[in-house]
Design a protein that fits this description.
By secondary structure, the chain is of the alpha+beta class. About 30% of the residues lie in helices and about 20% in strands.
C-alpha cells in the first residue's frame, strides 16, 4: 500500500503472496478453446482414440480469457508432465465462452460445477462413463498449484496397464 507523505509517495505496507510454482503464460492470445469447436464431436473423437490407444479422456472446461486455464495448459506441456498426459489421456478443451454459459449441456452431462471457478477437469472412460469431475475448484487457482499436485492427479486417474 502506498501513501503520499508530503510530496513523496512511500510504501507503508506490503502483502506477500505465494510465488507461482507453475510457469506463467507470456501469451494469452493462444486459442486453447476455439469458439467454433463442436464439443460433442471432439469428445466422441477423443473417446474413439482413447479406446484404440487404451487411454482415458481428460475434459478441461475453461475459456481463452481465463488466465489459470492458460497456466494449466502450459503445465500439461512441462517436461515432467507431458509424457504422462500423452500416454494416458486424450485431452479435450471445452469452451465455456465469455459468460461461462456455452456448452451448458456438456457441463451438465459430466456433472461439472462452475461455481468454484475455472478451469474444471473431468475424467471419462473411452465409453463416455464419468470417472470423476472435480467439485471443489481444485484447479481454479492453477497459478499457485505445485507441479506435484498435477502429477498426483494425472497418475491417480490414468488407466492402469
Amino acid at each position: 500500500m502506498w501513501r503520499k507523505q508530503s510530496e513523496q509517495w512511500r510504501v507503508i505496507s506490503v502483502e506477500r503472496a505465494d510465488a507461482p510454482q507453475l510457469n506463467q503464460p507470456s501469451d494469452m492470445n493462444r486459442n486453447i478453446y476455439p469458439a467454433d469447436a463442436d464439443a460433442h464431436a471432439e469428445i466422441k473423437e477423443a473417446e474413439e482414440r482413447a479406446a484404440r490407444e487404451h487411454k482415458r479422456v481428460l475434459l478441461v472446461f475453461g475459456a481463452n480469457w481465463c488466465y489459470d486455464c492458460h497456466v494449466l495448459d502450459l503445465a500439461f506441456q512441462r517436461r515432467d508432465l507431458a509424457p504422462i498426459v500423452a500416454s494416458g489421456y486424450e485431452v479435450v478443451h471445452i469452451d465455456l465462452g465469455p459468460d461461462e454459459q456455452k456448452n451448458a449441456d456438456v457441463v451438465k452431462q459430466f456433472d461439472v460445477p462452475l461455481n468454484k471457478g475455472i478451469p474444471v477437469l473431468a475424467v471419462i472412460e473411452s465409453d463416455g462413463k464419468l470417472l470423476m469431475s472435480q467439485k471443489n475448484g481444485e484447479f481454479e487457482d492453477a497459478r499457485s498449484l505445485a507441479p506435484q499436485a498435477l502429477l498426483e492427479f494425472l497418475n491417480k486417474w490414468r488407466p492402469r496397464s
